[in-house]
Amino acid sequence: MVWAFLFLLSAAVFTAIMIFERRTVWSGFFLLLTAFLLGVFLLSFAQANPRWFSEHLLFHILLDAELIFLLIILVAYPLVLIPVFLIGGITLMRREGFRFRNVLSLGMAVALLVFDIFFPLLFDVRTPGTAMYLYWYATLISMYFIVQLVSFGLSNFLNLLHFKKNQGLSYVVVLGCGLSGEKLTPLLRSRVDQGIRVYRNNPGSKLILSGGQGKDELLPESHAMANYAISKGIPVQDVMMEDASGNTEENLRFSARMMQGSRPRFAVATSSYHVMRSLLIARRQKLSCIGYGAGTRLYFSLNAFLREYAGYFRDSRIAGLLNLLLLTVIYLAFVFHQVG
User: CA 300 to CA 266: how far, in whole Å?
Assistant: First the structure.
């Protein structure tokens, strides 16, 4: 009954978060925790009541699904995740050049290879000693980052879900991301196309195209975005341009100043991997909004998503560092207890 209570409590917290404020990484964390507690509850119940459990097909299917999911995670971690990051990182650098921001995916693959394969082969991690304690400390810290990364990804996914096309929006803000000369890059074009779809699903809304002019750009991003939107049939009177911003925080703050009304409801249209962090920034600015994501190529999305997570960790670094410090203290206390 304890596991059933914990499962129901976690499910209730997750539901409350989704109803009142889904723009938080806690939404993904509690979805992950709820799924885990459901599996533990079903497994413990099956062990205690094997006959009853076998006679109720629905619960049997749920437990099988949980076990299959766990098996996929255990197998996918070394056999799928490493090759995906490795191939994605190499593809990204081949197509877009060797830059620091483009090596995150490849770096993740190398780190996983070193940690999961080479370190256990080179050192004895089964016998108590320095190598074992270092290995399990690295495992603890990596699990913290993996859980946080998965929670961030799940939260991003949850914020992409919208069950109604017409959300009663007053404005749709499209975030800029760079030009190629005077033309939109494929990435930026996909964002504007997504913004246009949301605008058309919300009659009476306005389209705010947000983006200033970079040093290597011939005109402000918002002007090129506006030209493209108008060429797609958007009425000129429904197109607004915010051309002073240089990053996502300024995109949102400057765009909000152009809106009329005390607390206008608006949507942010950006790349799918960028939605969660955009919404977190908007929440810090006390702006009421939802997010829509435009699709991007897989090889680019993997690296970009890791950059977004790194940006999230930087934005919440105080809490993150305190959590890491707490985990380190607990682990050291455990080690000293074992040694003593």
Answer: 27
